[in-house]
Design a protein that fits this description.
Length: 232
């Protein structure tokens, strides 16, 4: 971030952007808030151009929170008059990431089911679950209104859903934060921007599976990154 803000590098010189997890700025004003301000007000033009060009953008955990608060996810939706909204203001934010429903930090492995009808390029062709950990205290995904929630589901912008080992939508602990309808990841309508609370980068090698020593394999998160690179 410092190199981009100082002009040492240009965001548009790159082909893919990953906004990673971690507690940016100490989360002193809420998860991802200060980071989102940098993205919107200091890199807003380049971020908008990067996303509009169709280049892949992936936000993980705190990075997902920053993309939501910066207005890049899930993108504009229909306004009360039925017209498509354009641009972004903080008052138009359609979703937010609230404290976990049990009001505590959750660190556990979860199963994620990709929506085969989603336009998300990161999940294209995935026909198996993704198994990876979560580690957050503020990851409950909620929509501003029932209309916004219906729009997200109708357009298949909920790219990833928390499920149990059998692939069924389930409550806690399979859904660790209480997100509405088990929403774990959102994409924009173009499908090139994806945000998710779980950490696929923590399961890219077979031996990272928590029961690898018992012979369990598969469902690695590496596939999401592979599809992003292929799209470049």
């Amino acid at each position: 971030m410092n190199q981009l803000l100082a002009g040492e590098h240009r965001l548009l010189d790159y082909h893919m952007l990953v906004v990673p997890g971690g507690f940016s700025y100490g989360d002193d004003l809420g998860a991802g808030t200060l980071w989102a301000l940098d993205l919107r007000h200091r890199l807003g033009h380049d971020m908008a151009a990067f996303a509009a060009s169709g280049r892949p953008v992936l936000g993980i955990c705190n990075g997902f929170q920053a993309l939501v608060k910066a207005g890049l996810l899930p993108g504009p939706g229909p306004d009360p008059t039925g017209n498509q909204q354009r641009g972004f203001s903080p008052h138009q934010r359609r979703v937010t990431l609230a404290p976990n429903i049990l009001r505590r930090f959750e660190c556990r492995w979860v199963y994620l089911s990709p929506d085969p009808q989603s336009p998300c390029l990161f999940t294209q062709g995935l026909d198996d679950l993704v198994y990876c950990p979560v580690a957050h205290g503020e990851g409950r995904l909620v929509a501003r209104s029932d209309e916004d929630l219906a729009d997200l589901t109708t357009r298949h912008l909920v790219a990833l859903t928390y499920v149990d080992a059998a692939g069924n939508v389930a409550n806690y602990p399979a859904n660790p934060n209480g997100s509405v309808m088990g929403m774990a990841g959102l994409c924009n309508p173009a499908g090139n921007v994806l945000g998710m609370m779980p950490h696929p980068e923590d399961h890219i090698f077979p031996w990272q599976h928590p029961r690898w020593h018992r012979g369990e394999r598969g469902m690695v998160g590496l596939r999401l990154f592979e599809r992003g690179v292929q799209a470049c």
